[in-house]
Specification:
Number of helices: 14
CATH topology of the largest domain: Rossmann fold
Number of strands: 16
Order of helices and strands: HHHHHHHEHEHEEHEEEEEEHHEEEHEHEE
Oligomer: single chain
Strand content: 15-25%
Shape: globular
Helix content: 25-40%
Distance between the termini: 46 Å
Strand order of the largest sheet: 3-2-1-4-5-7-6-8-9
CATH class of the largest domain: Alpha Beta
Structural class: alpha/beta
Length: 416
């Protein structure tokens, strides 16, 4: 393996990656010496209060680039290691928060892991509207840094945050401006409705994918499912093992971000797919799909629709057919506009042979070639690099496995 890496990147390149890795290990050690734990909110509550109340320190930490050991060392000359660790953590969390929280990112109080686990503004606002419409007071269990609590407060919902970590409960209060408590979610008396965000990572920061591994887990979720509320889950959770309710899959700018189990009076249909920021929802029962040959147009389906099992419903409503049961593509001879679809005009279809496809692309003025695939039919990065031409025409190449055969579908995106 070592020889393979050296051959691929050269001695200088390999040395660069090795040094970079050692730098990050050193940072981890330095932060650990200051009391940092990667799996939970780092530092003590007093450390966080001291840092947040010292804007000069926060600004100085923001000037330290990730990996800058010398910069961290300068901060530690006159300050406790734990204080510096918290300041650096806060600065990094705010850097990463811009994509989730927009203008709010500069004032967010969060550790990196807490920020990464928090619900983004768009998804939080979408969920909060359902609580607000019901007029229910909410207990936000496992509130973390307050992503959902902020959205609930913005929507005018009466919310109390609860978290087992005193640091995270305090962060939620700072960020959302709501009442919070440090308590075990399993021992809290819920108000009129609940929102639960069980931990999907271990103490070491490793993601949990199985429903059985959530913390707090199945026992609490099934008890709460008898009431009005919502459970935030990872989008990869096994939908078939969840308690009865409405399962909503949410995607943000094309990326699945969460599944939500709505229960009690807040549940409506069996399944729902929602795309943000468009705010469009497709709701109903899963139905079987009709299949057919590729037509004039090929449509990639938003991941929320496919994950919710609603491709058949969408295809039926739009009078389209599927190319294959597991490729996430619909097709038809008419151009269809839908927030759940990305349209492509199909130009050529052939058996997959890289040389043959390259010759076709060069003969047709190909420039940038976007490669889409499923099931590791090919390495998209390698194929994209190999097929890029000197022409001016962009193409999208689907390399797909139709049972035993692999085919190439050459298409162009349809401009909106």
């Amino acid at each position: 393996m070592l020889v393979k890496w050296i051959k691929r990147f050269g001695v200088v390149g390999f040395a660069f990656f090795l040094l970079k890795g050692l730098v990050w290990l050193a940072i981890a050690g330095a932060l650990a010496a200051g009391g940092v734990g990667w799996g939970v909110a780092i530092g003590t509550l007093e450390d966080w209060k001291q840092v947040v109340d010292c804007p000069e320190l926060v600004a100085a930490a923001a000037d330290v680039a990730p990996g800058d050991l010398a910069g961290i060392a300068r901060l530690r000359r006159n300050l406790d290691a734990g204080i510096v660790a918290v300041a650096v953590e806060l600065a990094e969390a705010r850097r990463r928060a811009a994509a989730k929280f927009g203008a709010r990112a500069d004032s967010i109080v969060a550790d990196v892991q807490g920020m990464e686990m928090a619900t983004a503004t768009a998804a939080g606002a979408h969920k909060a509207r359902r609580f607000a419409s019901a007029g229910l007071a909410v207990t936000d269990l496992c509130c973390g840094i307050g992503g959902d609590a902020m959205a609930l407060m913005d929507a005018g919902v009466d919310v109390v945050g609860v978290d087992a970590s005193d640091v995270r409960a305090w962060m939620c209060a700072r960020n959302a401006g709501c009442e919070t408590r440090m308590a075990d979610a399993r021992e809290v008396e819920v108000r009129e409705a609940y929102h639960l965000d069980p931990a999907r990572r271990t103490g070491a920061g490793v993601r949990r994918w199985r429903y059985e591994d959530l913390e707090p887990g199945r026992e609490l979720i099934e008890r709460l499912a008898e009431r009005d509320g919502a459970v935030k889950l990872g989008p990869g959770v096994d939908l078939d093992v969840l308690p009865r309710g409405e399962i909503e899959l949410i995607s943000e700018r094309g990326t699945l971000t969460q599944a939500v189990l709505w229960t009690g009076s807040l549940a409506g249909v069996s399944r729902r797919a929602t795309v943000l920021p468009a705010g469009a929802s497709l709701a109903g029962e899963p139905v079987s799909m009709a299949f057919g040959e590729a037509g004039t147009y090929v449509f990639s389906v938003d991941a929320s629709v496919e994950r919710a099992g609603l491709m058949g419903l969408l295809a039926r409503e739009l009078r389209l057919v599927a190319l294959h049961p597991s490729l996430g593509l619909l097709t038809g001879n008419e151009l269809v506009e839908s927030p759940f679809l990305t349209p492509f005009r199909l130009i050529e279809r052939m058996g997959w042979r890289e040389k043959k496809v390259r010759e076709w692309l060069r003969a047709n003025d190909a420039g940038i070639v976007e490669v889409k695939t499923r099931g590791r039919a090919v390495d998209p990065d390698k194929v994209q690099a190999a097929l890029r031409g000197d022409g001016a025409t962009p193409y999208t190449l689907f390399v797909l496995r139709f049972d035993r055969r692999v085919e190439a579908l050459i298409a162009r995106r349809v401009s909106s």
